[in-house]
Specification:
This protein folds into 2 domains: about 1-155 and about 315-350, Medium-chain alcohol dehydrogenases, catalytic domain (Quinone Oxidoreductase, Chain A, domain 1, Alpha-Beta Complex), CATH 3.90.180; about 160-295, Rossmann fold. Helices cover about 30% and strands about 25% of the residues. It has helices at about 40-45, 105, 150, 155-165, 185-195, 205-215, 230-235, 250-260, 280-285, 300-310, 315-320, 330-340; strands spanning about 1-10, 10-15, 25-35, 65, 70-80, 90-95, 95-100, 120, 130-135, 140, 175-180, 200-205, 220, 240-245, 260-270, 290-295, 320-325, 345-350. The strands form 4 sheets. Strands 3, 5, 6, 9, 10, 17 and 18 form a 7-stranded mixed β-sheet that branches. α4 (about 155-165) packs across α5. The protein is globular. The termini are close together.
Length: about 350
């Protein structure tokens, strides 16, 4: 079968590889659609980050080249011995976290904080940029009948956004700022709406993404090249927002996120970083602010799909391009680098 594999930064190839076979406790899925994630783009531009290159990953036991793709939906085509929750023909999405199940975080149910954390499609296991993939039964979630496969491919990134908001201190009626209106930033806007944020301020350079942010519920969108984003947010929110979300991975933006919050405000770091970022600690200390990081999600896929059935995180508002697997680099990764009007690109593997 055809599969897109990461060899090194700027080197992703569509190869012919052996089709995976189901085994005990596992589910084989025919992939319908797979989204290109910001994490995938980081690996393409500056990896390896999650991709194992020097030693096999402790859970997947795989090493580069790695089949990529972790935002995907599909149909169950085979189940292994002992699988009881799924049947052939089920429409499903995959929660692509690889965790050991034995460390303290895993024992507490916080499997996204596993010391050996990995991701199916980044850390090995055979990802969604392929016609078929095989995953453990516990990673699979059945989709509501009302959701399309395209919608299913958005469950994983929407889960990141919803987890970020859930892990913040935001309460209904609070004010929030989102720095960066890429795919995750836009989904954070929708998650904030679902959580009852009264005012949402967004900082974004791209006019097309700015317009999409307004469409999804932003009260004001600020172009930082035209206005001082921090000063504008503090003025319009009457002293700063309750919670800000950093969704760019650009070092200078972290300081802006912190400065945009009020006293006792909170900054949530959602991005995966390629470089270090710095800020003056007194900006946190003297106002008793907090800075918090989040990684991925846990126990949240069913809630995301329920919100989707209520009209949140809709594919028709977020998907800007659909491509074939053979076009992954030229029309996928390179488009995301060059075309800032792109939001979510979905990839269709050979059927």
């Amino acid at each position: 079968m055809k599969a897109a594999r990461w060899y090194k930064s700027h080197d992703i190839r569509v190869d012919d590889i052996e089709e995976p076979q189901v085994s005990a406790g596992k589910v084989k899925i025919k992939v319908a659609w797979t989204g290109i994630c910001g994490s995938d783009l980081h690996e393409y531009l500056a990896g390896p980050i999650f991709i194992p290159v020097d030693h096999p990953h402790k859970i997947s036991h795989d090493i580069a080249p790695i089949v990529m793709g972790h935002e995907f939906s599909g149909e169950v085509v085979a189940v292994g011995a002992g699988v009881s929750k799924f049947n052939v023909g089920d429409r499903v999405v995959v929660e692509p976290i690889l965790s050991c199940g034995e460390c303290e975080a895993c024992r507490e149910g916080k499997y996204n904080l596993c010391g050996d954390l990995g991701f199916h499609g980044l850390s090995g296991g055979g990802g969604g940029f392929a016609s078929f993939t095989v995953v453990d039964e516990h990673m699979v979630h059945r989709m509501p009948d009302s959701l399309t496969y395209e919608q299913g491919a958005l469950v994983e990134p929407a889960a990141v956004a919803l987890h970020a908001v859930r892990m913040s201190k935001l309460k209904a009626g609070d004010k929030a700022a989102v720095f960066g209106a890429g795919p995750i930033g836009l989904l954070v806007i929708e998650a904030l709406r679902a959580a009852g944020a009264s005012e949402i301020y967004v900082v974004e350079l791209s006019p097309q993404r700015a317009e999409k942010a307004r469409e999804l519920g932003a009260k004001v969108v600020i172009n930082p090249k035209e206005r001082d984003a921090v000063a504008t947010i503090r003025e319009l929110s009457q002293g700063g927002v309750d919670v800000s979300f950093e969704v760019t991975g650009v070092p200078v933006v972290l300081k802006q996120c912190i400065d945009a919050t009020r006293y006792e405000g909170e900054t949530i770091i959602v991005s995966i970083w390629e470089n270090e970022a710095s800020f003056q600690p007194n900006t946190v200390v003297l106002s008793e602010r907090t800075v918090k990081g989040i990684i991925a999600y846990r126990h949240i896929f069913p809630a995301v799909m329920e919100l989707m059935t209520q009209g949140f995180f809709q594919a028709d508002k977020l998907v800007t391009k659909r491509i074939a697997l053979d076009e992954l680099v030229s029309e996928g990764f390179e488009s995301l680098v060059k075309e800032k009007n792109q939001v979510k690109i979905l990839v269709r593997p050979p059927q």
